[in-house]
TrEMBL record:
Monomer. It comes from the Bacteria. It is found in: Cytoplasm. This is Glutamate--tRNA ligase. Its EC number is 6.1.1.17. It catalyses: tRNA(Glu) + L-glutamate + ATP = L-glutamyl-tRNA(Glu) + AMP + diphosphate. Belongs to the class-I aminoacyl-tRNA synthetase family. Glutamate--tRNA ligase type 1 subfamily.
Length: 462
């Protein structure tokens, strides 16, 4: 939205420096999910792993500038440092310690667990000529670090909270922190909008821009989505992947409209088309507080967009659900297509909407549920037989003509609509949910409707 609103470019980069997590399947899921949502990048996706040579080149230049250095601390030594810090922290909780001893232990623990500042940052010699090393950024030495964030406002931390972060691992591969900065610079990124779980990373990444003499982009950090209970969204709250919502029966335009309103607002308007959103979107409308996932609200928005959907497109989306237990027969499809424009409001998801057409898919003779069998009592069947004769005489099979015929029959027989409608509905639907009876008759078609009535009359011997 931001890029489109400002006439900029929307770029897609697959950050696959973590080889264990960045599988081909994971990448394919990202691309498929974005394609489903219609989020089309202005350039082909860039695979971060394809730029390792460029990342290493920048690390080498930082070494030559003196803004990065070789660090010979081993992973084992760093882990031992953390373990010792935790030991001292736990030791400080022991009973019987003087306040002075407790404070001393906590001070030692805090030093050991503080952001790591390497002893080699100021040019200490290597422990041996062939010692393995990482390349680390020389973090800022002191004072405050401030980020003017487009959503969170002015955020300030102490420089001492930033570690000498690793740029290149001992095997020569770049870390995410280096790769993302180099790629953002080389791709011409001027605005970064991301989750506020990356706010801390911003304070670690900006010194990389400074170390290379580059202009840092503007940053905006959006609060993460929480579950209905206010806790951080997790698997226990339901579906998390984009494609899972597609399988649950939500339309892409509904998902986009809902996600937009989760963290952003413009007046009291609840639902925006994509064109409206592009025209109105700005960072000022993004709230700082975490939004809560509300599937009921998502369902309402999805229902809105299903009602607006083109009939042919909607049928195409519903067809796989209709055919879950076998292919649609031509007569079934014809009935569904006649009813579709009138039943779009019968569900909040595609699966719910598909179930509303079950009475049209049902094959003769219908299986009756308990209530339907009760409605087709001998008395009800007699009334149904009389009505069947009148329905057969209709020449224009429309809901209006059908409704008039049923009303005339009730008047002539001194019957209420309920006395006739209940057995008629039972014979036509088998007890499945269905709307008003006259449209049901029209959608079924004359031959099918009379055939369903005849099935019940023949079975009862009427």
């Amino acid at each position: 939205m931001f890029a489109r609103h400002h006439g900029g470019r929307f770029l897609l980069r697959i950050e696959d420096t973590d080889r264990a997590r960045s599988t081909d399947e994971a990448t394919a899921a990202i691309l498929e999910g974005m394609a489903w949502l219609g989020l089309e990048a202005d350039e082909p996706p860039l695979m971060q792993s394809s730029r390792e040579a460029r990342h290493a080149e920048v690390a080498a230049e930082m070494l030559s500038r003196g803004t990065a250095f070789k660090c010979y601390a081993t992973p084992e030594e760093l882990q031992a440092r953390r373990d010792l810090g935790e030991e001292k922290r736990q030791a400080a909780k022991a009973e019987g310690l003087s306040e002075e001893a407790r404070a001393a232990l906590l001070a030692e623990a805090n030093d050991l667990l503080a952001p790591y500042r390497s002893p080699w940052r100021d040019g200490a010699p290597a422990p041996s000529p062939d010692a393995a090393y990482t390349i680390r950024l020389r973090a800022p030495d002191g004072g405050d670090r401030v980020v003017e964030d487009g959503v969170q406002g002015s955020v300030r931390i102490q420089a001492s909270e930033i570690d000498d972060l690793i740029m290149l691992r001992a095997d020569g591969t770049p870390t995410y922190m280096l790769a993302v900065v180099v790629d953002d610079h080389d791709m011409g990124v001027t605005q970064v909008i991301r989750g506020d779980d990356h706010l801390r990373n911003t304070f670690r990444q900006i010194p990389i821009y400074e170390a290379m003499g580059w202009q840092a982009p503007a940053f905006a950090h959006v609060s993460l989505i929480h579950g209905p209970d206010g806790a951080k969204l997790s698997k226990r709250h339901g579906a998390l992947s984009t494609l899972a919502y597609r399988e649950m029966g939500y339309l892409p335009e509904a998902m986009k409209a809902y996600l937009l309103r989760l963290g952003w607002s413009h007046g009291d308007q609840e639902i925006f088309t994509e064109e409206e959103a592009i025209s109105l979107f700005d960072l000022a409308g993004i709230g700082r507080a975490p939004a809560r996932l509300d599937l009921e609200k998502l369902g309402q928005i999805n229902s809105h967009f299903m009602r607006l959907a083109d009939d042919d497109r909607l049928f195409g989306l519903l067809k796989p659900l209709f055919e879950a237990e076998g292919p649609l027969q031509p007569d079934q499809q014809a009935r569904i297509l006649r009813a579709l424009p009138h039943l779009k409001d019968r569900g909040t998801t595609l699966s719910e909407l598909a179930s509303a057409f079950a009475f049209l898919q049902a094959q003769r003779p219908l299986d009756l549920n308990k209530n339907a069998r009760k409605a087709l009592s001998p008395e009800g069947l007699d009334r149904l037989a009389g009505l069947r004769h009148e329905l057969a005489r209709i020449s224009q099979w429309t809901a209006e003509e059908i409704s008039g015929t049923i009303t005339s029959y009730c008047t002539a027989q001194d019957l209420s609509m309920g006395q006739v409608g209940q057995p008629l509905r039972a014979a036509l639907t088998g007890g499945l949910p269905a709307p008003d009876i006259a449209p049901v008759l029209e959608w079924l078609g004359k031959e099918e409707a009379l055939g369903r009535i005849d099935d019940q009359l023949v079975q009862a011997g009427t």
